[in-house]
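The freezer alarm interrupted the setup, so I double-checked each line after restarting. Inputs confirmed:
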Amino acid sequence: TAFAQSNVTVFGVVDLAVTRGSGSISNQTGLTSGQLAASRLAFKGTEDLGNGLKAGFWLEAGINADTGTGQSTNTNNQTTGFVKNGGFTFNRRSHLSLGGNWGEIRLGRDFVPQYWNIAHYDPLDLSGVGTSQVLNSSIGGPTLVRASNSISYLYGHGFNAAAIGYGPGGFSGSGFQFQAMGYLGENPSGSATSKDGNGYGLRALYSTGNFTVSGATGRTRYAAGDTRQSNVGASYNLGVVELMGMYEWDRNGPLKARGWLAGGRVPVGVGSIRVAYSRYDSDAAGSPTAKKWAVGYVHPLSKRTALYTTFAHVSNDGPSASALNGAVTAPGKSSNGFDLGIKHSF
Amino acid sequence: TAFAQSNVTVFGVVDLAVTRGSGSISNQTGLTSGQLAASRLAFKGTEDLGNGLKAGFWLEAGINADTGTGQSTNTNNQTTGFVKNGGFTFNRRSHLSLGGNWGEIRLGRDFVPQYWNIAHYDPLDLSGVGTSQVLNSSIGGPTLVRASNSISYLYGHGFNAAAIGYGPGGFSGSGFQFQAMGYLGENPSGSATSKDGNGYGLRALYSTGNFTVSGATGRTRYAAGDTRQSNVGASYNLGVVELMGMYEWDRNGPLKARGWLAGGRVPVGVGSIRVAYSRYDSDAAGSPTAKKWAVGYVHPLSKRTALYTTFAHVSNDGPSASALNGAVTAPGKSSNGFDLGIKHSF
Amino acid sequence: TAFAQSNVTVFGVVDLAVTRGSGSISNQTGLTSGQLAASRLAFKGTEDLGNGLKAGFWLEAGINADTGTGQSTNTNNQTTGFVKNGGFTFNRRSHLSLGGNWGEIRLGRDFVPQYWNIAHYDPLDLSGVGTSQVLNSSIGGPTLVRASNSISYLYGHGFNAAAIGYGPGGFSGSGFQFQAMGYLGENPSGSATSKDGNGYGLRALYSTGNFTVSGATGRTRYAAGDTRQSNVGASYNLGVVELMGMYEWDRNGPLKARGWLAGGRVPVGVGSIRVAYSRYDSDAAGSPTAKKWAVGYVHPLSKRTALYTTFAHVSNDGPSASALNGAVTAPGKSSNGFDLGIKHSF
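Predicted 3D structure, all chains:
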């Protein structure tokens, strides 16, 4: 029994919950993966190159821990590029970095900058039945969350780090942060769709420690109509409650949509109560609108392990038929959902 | 060259054998993975939460080490849920546990309880050409070996442990053990097949150390007809030989089947000779029946590495056409097979 | 935070480059994985069994780090056996070894012996835009690079080691080395294609340290016509330049082809300039011929991390339409390509 010499940290999350969703058409009970934090297996490492220069890599695969399957990635930032055959892929992150005091250059697959304003200002961590409706109803396309074939410049955060930004869901501390990403659809030149899947994202953030504000915008080109996403968010930690909210403007070709979330977290003993209201509406025929209330409680058993429960209610207007935890509901009807789970980080 | 800090143990098996099968229609020679123990790569860890409470996770992927492919899992305990595209999946185990002196609660994908009575009382470890005919001919469905979306309660064994039960193939020691599992097919409510893939399994075991006896039963619901599986097994270690056997009753809708195995292991120097006779017959048209003799020898080179060889002969009655190691044989004809391999655990 | 006890080394490469290809029909710009060394994640270990005997395993998965996908493997050394669904597989290596002073027996999936004469005598490491045309235009079939279901005997190199052979791309040192591999297509007996995918490869090498020479030959059986591959290579390290070259004869059924490469590496400070000319032509209708010039520079930032850039130009005669980095070019036209990237080993 020798100790392994390694330049690699193996880490991840296994998160499983009993889930229930009810809707006007059908209900569903299940065991579901990642309702507080996405289940994942990842490999990362950082090398000190001297003279203040560092290199780092990060390979992170999403896992459906209820069944053992992997998750889908997208190879070209277009609808033709989804890879979803159930095998393990590094769909969550696959990147290589070079960095110093001047910032970090990052190549590969990563979250788009504007994603962080949806994720970090959601008191329910953009996971499970309580996930912000700004994500769940989004008219964004294949680059709503991540982009492949990307190059990013990041300033003002830890090197080769998971989260981008101070404030809720990110780092502690105060200061200015900036991220710019460009990505490629890798199509042959000379056709109408040559630039499909090419795009960019930008994000800037300022934090005093207790007060954080950030804005982001991104665009991906498609011959059928570009997708555009812009958002702002802010949080204020009053001690007895951390308030947070965000506002989003989206476009997908001729379609326009808006969404927002307001909520907060209240420390209760070692745990935390989380409450959010989010809504999203587009100008598609019938003006589909979805509105969600979510309330949850997280009870840590250690720094790595927590019990949690969440209840959410989503109501729909027009042709919107958003439903929770596998339930199916008719347009204009509502849906309820419930999570009770354990999250374990390793 | 730093040492890795980790909450993870990376472990597994690579097992490869030269195999030969012959049948009345065709023969096959190959290099085959997992003929003594399934080739696999796995990640596990346990966290002490204090107050006698522990958390643990286990992610285990089957590997076909002869070709580098992964293995199929099943997402919904139904025939529609097989994922078999050759990619790596955590098909063997994917679970999260919370436990204490009162036992263990385990969520995710795991072996069904009744599987252990087929596996642990097979002197040939339910692997390779000698695998018990009770498994090979079984009329059981997608939950014959494992279930996804499961919740189990386990009592009286090691926390977050591989094997369930004392006796051959399991732990050393004496005592009482119990396992109960429930699992979900996760279908929408309100249709005839809403409960398909829902099921349960129970197993109880008592061991004095040398003498072990256990019984199990399980059932999975399908609108087309439930599958049911019940079995009992026992082993007695006389020193010069460890005798073992099991009996099984199965149902799949209107079909009934029975099987049994009797065999033993004889220590020879550092090695072990293994012998088993198993048979399985159902009341399907023509009363298909398969009977197998298997004899093998395992020669350990260390605790982690062993050489092995197995010879088996299966004979068929009625429409049964069971054949070994890729051979094809006509109904009612027999088949021979041979393994010569190396198993290495890491 | 405990240190992991392990018999496993987790290692790999993440290599990403900005790439550009231009051709007479279309151009392409992209972020591409593995242009200096294939991106990969791997697990290996060696056990000392005493008495000079060792056991070892090696599981290595190719990664497309630009998108997070895995790579395809082949299960039966035939065109029917490709597994390419984007999931992670141990496509690069999946083998188990037993060895001593007498050599090494290796079972599983591995590179074919004749591959090493193409790889090791290519100054550009058979990677990226500069890859030898002997590989890129090859008429070889599914076993051109690797074979599944194989058994090898290796003499004269490190146990359970990556590279086979002294000289460029391999080990330092002098001596004689030998490798023989046999592999199986695992088809049922009794049909015309029963032996499809069966084959062998042989390679012998002698090195004085500065001067290395080797030859190899291999053959895979197919009812539609066997593939055969033979090659010789040599390198001479003069200090100011390491010269290298190889010559190849291929057959695929009735088709014959020949190729060769000549080139070298020139140390420049801590870096290395690499230059190669390679060509390949077959006797297919129209005598397709491809000729490539490649020049590159590798600048190490550490033993593990390097910056690199490569420029290549390929010209085609007859129906050959070889193009670089995703460009498309018409038969008889040329193509240019460019890589600028970072390679990081862990």
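Quick read of the result. Residues 1-5 of chain C have pLDDT under 50 and may be disordered.
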